[in-house]
Write a structure and sequence with these properties.
The protein is α+β, with helices and mostly antiparallel strands and 121 residues long. Helix content is 26%, strand content 31%.
Length: 121
């Protein structure tokens, strides 16, 4: 499966994951898979700690405005466990991350212009 309007692959959890979730929330929703390469194949060196998912969800909630709380679950791809974050289109827009607003266009995130931000408001 390839990255597209509603799917993104990340090798690890970082700010780019949160940015993508914000972009999905400001458009039509989507899923971010953490622990996979750009082609969607699980990484051999990706490991989950006991509290990883809860810490990540808290970080997402704290760094977004209004606060996003995505669904997070462990998914198996082959024999390897990865994390799947999913978010629906958010009813209150626009959602920001670190004071910036993003939208999803095809398979990438784009920062919103001031006009686009006011139109979403």
């Amino acid at each position: 499966m390839k990255e597209n309007q509603h799917t993104e692959y990340k090798s690890g959890f970082n700010d780019a994951v949160i940015e993508t979730l914000v972009a999905f929330a400001n458009t039509k929703g989507g899923k971010v898979f953490v622990g996979v390469d750009d082609k969607g194949k699980p990484l051999k060196n990706f490991f989950l700690g006991k509290e990883s998912i809860q810490q990540w969800v808290n970080e997402i909630k704290n760094k977004t405005q209004p606060s996003l709380i995505p669904d997070a679950e462990i998914t198996k791809i082959g024999r390897k466990e990865v994390v799947e974050f999913s978010i629906k289109e958010f009813p209150i827009k626009p959602v920001s991350f670190k004071g910036r607003y993003y939208k999803r266009v095809k398979n990438s995130n784009h920062q919103l212009s001031l006009t686009e931000i006011s139109d979403l408001h």
